[in-house]
Write a sequence for this structure.
């Protein structure tokens, strides 16, 4: 079972509350070699998650799945 990171509960924006920072913090605190489930609201949060995955792809981060559930976008991301 993968851990869930629900970005929809955040205020959003940039800086310390950005999705990219939240994902990086999760990766550093929990470690790699796992899949995480990321729930994001359509729009800016989804864009930021996709940009983070693209930026971290050289480090081995991979997008496994992207689907829409109950009006939210759910990503499954592999962390090396």
């Amino acid at each position: 079972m993968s851990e869930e990171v629900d970005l929809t509960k955040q205020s959003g924006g940039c800086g310390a509350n950005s999705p990219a920072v939240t994902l990086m913090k999760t990766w550093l605190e929990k470690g790699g070699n796992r899949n995480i489930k990321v729930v994001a609201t359509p729009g800016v949060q989804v864009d930021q998650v996709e940009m983070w995955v693209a930026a971290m792809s050289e480090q081995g981060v991979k997008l496994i799945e992207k689907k829409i559930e109950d009006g939210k976008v759910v990503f499954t991301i592999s962390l090396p």
Summary: The chain has one domain: 3-79. Residues 3-79 form a domain with the Translation Initiation Factor IF3 fold (CATH 3.30.110).
